[in-house]
Write a sequence for this structure.
């Protein structure tokens, strides 16, 4: 055993200059514990930008990092950089309510999100990082007969796409969550649509895992490097202007969520996107009480409990264009009212924190993964407030598009020109009104 | 947020319903399909000063053009949308 530990220690010290190359394992934790945890190293390098790359990904959030990871690993591409204006994972990947699920209805969406779900299921082994993926189940409650019919239809659409879905009656829901407000006069709980494979993931861990995996595969992750414009010639992109100088690029992929309109304006484009603020909330730490994810069907409210014990919940966006990363009090009141209507016991919990993130709300509520009219410039945007669960498939599909020039089979519907052509993917059916999606 | 209604004074933004960019006042001829698709779906979405349509649904039911900073949420002014349109539109 000693010899093995010495060998492991030798491996560690021999790779100090590139510590991220060391794989994590139970044995590694054991060896580090014996050695006083002196062998841990930064998870990724912090390189200066090269003059040029084959692939430049703009945006070091979940989707950008996942794109770089799959480009370098699955698609075997090299000379890749991720440019991030702040620090890695400093946007919505670090601000969401951590829910993963594939319970969509429309054929343009459901296969894509189920592909994402399957990637989630193998993700931690794939990138050798603990993302705390927990398939604790997501339950969408229904409160009317019509809503139950709609959930039955949705559940069948999910099953047809290879996902799992179960329609529960009121008694089955009561057995799972006896504390819900079943006999409310206005919103009695009639049942729910349960996806047992849904759940939560440690959102920052997802960003860190993809970042570390991409770095190990040779991707340059360049932080504090804001893209301020594009250099273009004859309708083709040549590179990006940044706060750290010009960087040449064969292909540029933009995955900047709420900043999409601002960044793409640099290429002369207007997008079918408005940026809106969505707030999220966490309570003080409580003993284990909610073991899955629950959504209210009569308002917009979703809640789960983190492993630290805090109740993590959210609701609708505030409803007006915003780049402020903070919302206003009326929406906090609205979310609290929904929570009280669903589970009155929440009234005794104290709110610990509230924060906001900037959502790239598209005109039909569905995302865009496509080429642009500028040759070599690609766009990944319009995730509204559902981008976290899509992170693996978004990265995979965007990498597929960048590497092969063709859309991934599950992302064919996410075209930029679908709006003008009339092929919108509108899950809610509310039309070109982003604050209602 | 408080919106300075030109007729009613400061009103809570909660009384209003938000529609979006005031450029929606300038509807193009629907016969021009490309221009109309742009009108329906594309937005400038600026970070900074934004002119936008708010409907005083729980008030006097007037449409306002509110000028607001999307980075700070500061409201810089409000006019009746009717007046804006009669003056030649939002552009």
């Amino acid at each position: 055993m000693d010899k093995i530990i010495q060998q492991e220690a030798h491996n560690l010290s021999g790779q100090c200059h590139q510590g991220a190359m060391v794989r994590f394992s139970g044995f590694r934790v054991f060896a580090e514990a014996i050695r006083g945890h002196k062998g841990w190293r930064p998870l990724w390098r912090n390189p200066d930008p090269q003059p040029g790359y084959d692939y430049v990904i703009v945006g070091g959030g979940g989707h950008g990092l996942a794109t770089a990871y799959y480009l370098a690993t699955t698609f075997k591409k090299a000379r890749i950089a991720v440019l991030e204006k702040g620090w890695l994972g400093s946007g919505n990947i670090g601000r969401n309510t951590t829910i993963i699920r594939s319970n969509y209805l429309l054929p343009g969406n459901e296969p894509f999100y189920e592909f994402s779900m399957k990637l989630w299921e193998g993700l931690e082994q794939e990138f050798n990082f603990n993302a705390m993926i927990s398939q604790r189940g997501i339950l969408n409650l229904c409160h009317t007969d019509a809503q139950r019919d709609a959930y039955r239809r949705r559940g069948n659409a999910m099953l047809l796409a290879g996902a799992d879905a179960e329609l529960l009656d009121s008694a089955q829901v009561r057995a799972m969550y006896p504390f819900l407000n079943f006999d409310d006069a206005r919103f009695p709980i009639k049942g729910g649509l349960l996806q047992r494979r849904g759940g939560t993931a440690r959102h920052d861990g997802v960003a860190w895992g993809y970042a570390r995996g991409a770095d190990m595969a040779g991707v340059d992750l360049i932080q504090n490097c804001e893209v301020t414009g594009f250099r273009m010639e004859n309708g083709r992109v040549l590179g990006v202007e940044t706060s750290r100088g010009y960087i040449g690029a064969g292909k540029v992929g933009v995955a900047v969520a709420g900043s999409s309109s601002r960044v793409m304006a640099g290429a002369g484009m207007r997008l079918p996107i408005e940026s809106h603020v969505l707030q999220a909330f966490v309570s003080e730490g409580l003993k284990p009480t909610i073991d899955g994810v629950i959504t209210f069907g009569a308002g917009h409210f979703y809640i789960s409990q983190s492993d630290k014990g805090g109740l993590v919940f959210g609701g609708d966006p505030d409803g007006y264009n915003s780049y402020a990363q903070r919302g206003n009090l009326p929406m906090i009141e609205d979310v609290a009212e929904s929570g009280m209507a669903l589970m009155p016991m929440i009234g005794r919990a104290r709110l610990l924190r509230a924060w906001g993130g900037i959502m790239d709300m598209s005109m039909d509520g569905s995302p865009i993964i496509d080429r642009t009219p500028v040759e070599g410039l690609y766009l990944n945007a319009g995730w509204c407030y559902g981008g976290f669960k899509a992170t693996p498939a978004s990265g995979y599909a965007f990498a597929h598009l960048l590497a092969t020039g063709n859309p991934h089979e599950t992302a064919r519907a996410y075209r930029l020109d679908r709006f003008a052509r009339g092929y919108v993917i509108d899950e809610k059916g509310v039309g070109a009104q982003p604050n209602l999606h | 947020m408080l919106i300075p209604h030109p007729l009613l004074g400061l009103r809570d933004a909660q009384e209003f319903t938000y529609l979006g960019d005031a450029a929606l006042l300038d509807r193009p001829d629907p016969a021009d399909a490309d221009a109309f698709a742009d009108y329906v779906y594309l937005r400038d979405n600026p970070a900074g000063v934004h002119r936008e349509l708010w409907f005083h649904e729980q008030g006097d039911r007037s449409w306002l053009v509110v000028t607001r900073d999307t980075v700070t949420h500061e409201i810089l002014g409000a006019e009746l949308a009717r007046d804006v349109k009669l003056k030649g539109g939002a552009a």
Notes: Chain B has two helices and six strands. The longest strand of chain B covers residues 49-55. The radius of gyration of chain B is 14 Å.
